[in-house]
Design goal:
Elements lengths: L4 H8 L3 H8 L9 H13 L16 E6 L3 H6 L1 H17 L2 E5 L13 E5 L4 H10 L3 E4 L9 E5 L1 H14 L5 E6 L1 E2 L6 E2 L2 H12 L8 E4 L3 H15 L6 E4 L2 H13 L9 E6 L3 H4 L6 E4 L1 H17 L7 E4 L1 E4 L6
Length: about 325
């Protein structure tokens, strides 16, 4: 005898209506993730034919979301938390079950997953390992094309052009930069800061690039503070009137350093950051920043994963989301 929705409802201890709406992917239904997963599991155990992936291809897939950050690091840099929020929301809408893996612990990824969404910077070796676990892979905040996998990234080039253009429109041409340096989570490969690449290129086009005004940190608030102190101490009166800084945490540290040295913002030094996380709006003074659509990056990663689950193609896709400048009080 064929399994019915009522059979699933009885075994899962939920209402018939709840079973029907969950199995039909009703995103407006407010139901806990544990309940949703229990219904999926019971449906599979009872071999409910309408639930089989051959007929509902792409729905109910189990997706591992691998973060290269620890949970503590994620709290320090809300950029990746925002991406994860977008992934989780979109997965709930399409009916994907999420398995969260922090700190790139590949040994914790279940072998029985239908796909992997990897958030952050990963080495070729790690990407190959992902592919061994599942052929369906989407990279977020990292260009996956060289490794022949789908990816979602932000437009660092245009964002950097916006920042430089804003400074120049304010008649500021002595522009410094505090950028980041990092490695993949297994420390096997160094990752260049694309913002530095585009900054140097754009400034050289205008014959304005001065390498002595560029300082390297590690994307942390403390690093932003340390590098700005170094700039103040080494440059003295030649401290540039503008700084482009690679992310919001570093910018927060830089602002603290300027305030401690009684250097007025933006009267003496203007600042533009990159990412525009929530901290940019609440720090004093409000931080002008290049906005990245982080939640939308996560959502688009899920759409690529859904496409992989439901269709077949023999080429990778790369989605590049646009950026815009949000002006606040660290610029004129």
């Amino acid at each position: 005898m064929a399994t019915t929705l009522k059979d699933i409802a009885n075994q899962a201890n939920v209402s018939l209506a709840t079973v029907s709406r969950v199995l039909n992917g009703d995103s407006s239904l407010s139901v806990g993730e544990d309940t949703r997963q229990r219904i999926f599991q019971v449906a599979e155990e009872l071999n409910y034919t309408k639930h089989q992936r051959t007929k509902n291809k792409g729905k109910f897939a189990r997706i591992a979301v691998v973060q290269w950050y620890t949970q503590k690091q994620e709290l320090d840099d809300l950029y990746y938390m925002s991406i994860r929020t977008g992934i989780e929301r979109a997965c709930e809408q399409v009916g994907f079950q999420v398995v969260q893996i922090f700190e790139s612990k590949l040994d914790q990824i279940p072998t029985a997953v239908d796909g992997i969404i990897a958030v952050g910077k990963f080495s070729k070796r790690q990407i190959q390992r992902f592919k061994q676990i599942s052929s369906k892979l989407v990279m977020v905040d990292y260009d996956g094309l060289p490794s022949e996998c789908d990816s979602v990234t932000a437009d660092f080039e245009h964002g950097t052009q916006l920042a430089i253009g804003k400074f120049i429109s304010d008649d500021l041409t002595d522009i410094g930069m505090i950028h980041g340096s990092e490695t993949t989570s297994d420390h096997q490969e160094s990752i260049p800061d694309l913002r530095l690449h585009y900054f140097e290129r754009e400034m050289k086009k205008r014959d304005l690039f001065r390498p002595e005004l560029v300082f390297k940190g590690d994307y942390s608030s403390q690093s932003g503070y340390d590098q700005m102190i170094t700039a103040i101490d080494t440059l003295g009166d030649k401290l540039p009137h503008a700084f482009y800084i690679s992310n919001d945490p570093m910018s927060v540290g830089a602002i603290k350093a300027l305030q401690e040295r009684n250097i007025q913002i933006p009267e003496r030094v203007s600042l533009i950051s990159f990412n525009d996380t929530t901290i940019a709006n609440y720090i004093f003074p409000g931080l002008t920043s290049v906005k990245v659509a982080t939640e939308e990056m996560g959502e688009n990663a899920v759409l690529l994963m859904e496409e992989q689950q439901t269709t077949t193609r023999d080429y990778p896709k790369k989605l590049v989301l646009g950026t815009k400048l949000v002006e606040r009080k660290t610029t004129f």
